[in-house]
Amino acid sequence: MCNANGDQPIRLKRRPIAQSIENLDELLSLEKGRMSRDVFWDKDIYEQEIERIFARCWLFVAHESQIPKAGDYVTTYMGEDNVLIVRQKDGSIKGFLNTCPHRGNKVCFADLGNARQFVCNYHGWAFGIDGGLKGMTASETYEAAGLDKSEHGLHPVAHIDSYRGLIFATLDPDAPSLADYLGDMRYYLDAIFDMDEGGTEFIGGCVKSVIQCNWKYASENFVGDILHALWTHDSGAKAMVGGPVAEVHKTPEQSYHVNFNGHGWEFNQDIVGNCATLGEKELLKYLYVLQPKVAERLGEVRSKMIGAISSCTLFPNTSFLPGQNTFRTWHPRGPGQIELHTWTFVNKKAPQEIKDMWRKGTMMTFSPSGVFEMDDGENWEYSTRSNAGFVTRQQDLYLGLGQDTRVEGTDLPGNVFQGQINEANQRAFYQRWLDLMKADSWKTVPQRDVPKMKEGV
Hints:
Blueprint: E1 28-29, E2 34-35, H1 43-54, E3 59-63, E4 72-78, E5 81-87, E6 93-97, E7 112-114, E8 117-119, E9 126-128, E10 133-135, H2 139-144, E11 159-163, E12 166-170, H3 178-182, H4 185-193, E13 200-211, H5 215-224, H6 227-232, H7 234-241, E14 255-260, E15 263-268, H8 273-276, H9 281-298, H10 300-303, E16 310-314, E17 318-321, E18 326-332, E19 338-347, H11 352-365, H12 371-385, E20 397-398, E21 415-418, H13 424-438
Antiparallel strand pairs: 1-2, 2-20, 3-12, 4-5, 4-7, 5-6, 8-9, 9-10, 11-12, 13-19, 14-15, 14-21, 15-16, 16-17, 17-18, 18-19
Keywords: 2Fe-2S, Aromatic hydrocarbons catabolism, Dioxygenase, Iron, Iron-sulfur, Metal-binding, NAD, Oxidoreductase
Organism: Zoogloea dura
GO molecular function: 2 iron, 2 sulfur cluster binding; dioxygenase activity; iron ion binding
């Protein structure tokens, strides 16, 4: 891979970090709805995930509203690789590993800001916002040693691209395009991130927390587990709005699970179900007024998704909840820990008082002290921790709900399943996980789903 200036630096040949695990097929029997607990506990499996999933997939790294001006930057993670995302002078966006090529120190310690250059604290190496090495303290000693500055810029991410304001990057130069990677999910993303002219923005900063759980528990929960909400969050919903979570399983004809290559979205068509849990009538009014306009732009089906009971995970570790407007990434920190980054997203053209209500509401529900997040965090931690037992790990887990609920002939893109009490999206998530874990490169990753969505739609 080239350095920041486009030159080809000398690279030492290295073997892959993870030794390929040969018996992965034995860990999953998705057609029977069974899986091994080792998927959540084994350290070798985790190391292979870091190499074959997080160093390979397109990962969410920023929202365009966070870096509007040249020199604006955010720091984040791609797996366990710390990266620096920077707006360039020409308006483009570049990404780099946040590590100095001299001795490896971080070059930027802030979460976000604006800079004309980044200077390493250790030996004073200075890098432009384009990643190029501009100079260093005692530069004459490096010149005497024959150092070529063009070969020692910040190491770039392989590709960076955006969709509806969401910026993604990949560390694999052979990765498919972002459009191909998202595929049919773009149709559904438009319902939330393009529901209003002007798009969306992040507000209120980033909330960071640590949960002692495996990253897949969080991702698969948001990929389509409405069932837990009816039980786990019942008391929290009563505290917020004085009533139980809606019994969506009683309206299966209005409920769907859709997935494409591991991405999954479950949704009901009740327009405001998720939003109602925030207890703000003005937010409901805002969505009801907006809904006919969305129907005109995006069609009736998507207009009923704008704040409905729903959740989404973009494989592998980005999730959000429409209506409650929480957006989060589950950064792996070993098989038993994640670092959670959470934001609030709103329509950019929404009135300020509406934005403030959403920010307050998301903090009350999905933050470290939120009534729903405390429920989820405890469940995920104990689900992970219980796998420490040797005999416990010999017992399979079940994910077989909704095996025969796929529907054909709908206008909805992706793989479509009807009925919201379902684990179809979880099975699709783990099938994608297995395909990537077994593949030596993107060329050997199975293409199980053919996109139905037309370009430009």
